[in-house]
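Changelog note: in this version the structure field was regenerated for every chain. One regenerated record is shown below for reference.
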Amino acid sequence: MPALMTEFTKTVLSPEETLKLAPEIGRVPTAHVWVYRYRHVTEPWTLSIATHAQPDSHMLSLGGFRIAPETRTSIPGWNPDHEAIDLAIGMDEKVFWSRLLKVGGPHVQRDFSRIVGGKCVMLPSPGSRVGEPRDRELLDFAISCFKDVEQEHGFLLTTGQDLGHGVMSDGKTGSLRYLNEHYKGSVIADTGHPTAEGNYWMLVGMMKGAGVSLKGSVVGLIGAGNIGLHIIDHLLEDGATPLVIEARADKRAALEARGVKCWAPEAKPDFLRQPMDALVVNAAGNSLDMPSVALCAANARLKVINGSENLVMPDPAGEDVLRRANKVFCPCECGGMMGYLTAAEEYLSHVAGDAFTIESMMQAARGLEAPGERATRHVIADGYSQTMDQALRQLYG
């Protein structure tokens, strides 16, 4: 078991300081984000822990541990503080939606008052990502930081699945399992399936609300990873036709062997012009940039858009563009809440000494169908004068 390391420097940023660092926080009135930035003293590793938990509050800060992939770190101007802040705000919005719609497992339902959103983002170096030779050293560094922030700053940190995890370089140990063995706040449940299940039932509800039968419909999906594949399986079983854009050629080949038409990312404009009834976004981020939003707005058949993708819309003005084009867009923080709820339920179940089952979360995910249908009907009946975000707040708040 790794010893608690002291081989880091730490910088603590208050909400006032993070607002100066990332002025875009100001658009979210409820965002009060602290950042704990850890830097390894000899390696070029930075871990940014962003949280809405006040110091010494004993609040439970929920959010995944992201080991940033090169597709993110290569973006000009990228840094782990900004990514952690943005993701922590999105996570707190998921907490808000689950509380508002009363969706979640039994332990979370009893403990909503102490849960806030957070996120941990690691900037690794070449050779230290999961599956590479120095992955254990990187994870040991993260574990030391997790323990320090909990012991020294008085809140409870819970991390779950996110980008960058998998089998470690020993060929047998899962990175989440390794973290769980050495830090009590790291949970190991596969949050992908409950997230996908919530995504799917929100989609079912929205399509019902828009008067579209799932059987015989055409549904576009951006991303065919763990979440996307689960939704595709559902759609095929339901008699829908999925169309898929996916970065990995092997996944495209496997789906095409099942009769699913696929596009590579560079063909995204052509994909978004295809006649489709719904679009589901579950890629690595920025799927709904403004050119993509414009193509969605111009797609005459497209009626509803949802997903669970983090940082899906770089420009929030895109939501209003879709509304004016008579498209109902569900915030991804709402459709994607089941992942955080699964991590929270697992942690709180263990604290209470109760058994945790993933099946309970799959069942809880069905609670998103009714709000999806009700809010979509409301938006359409009101002549698209509101976004779905506004409709949900009005109907359930």
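Spot check on this record: The first strand starts at residue 8 and ends at 13. The first helix runs from residue 15 to 21.
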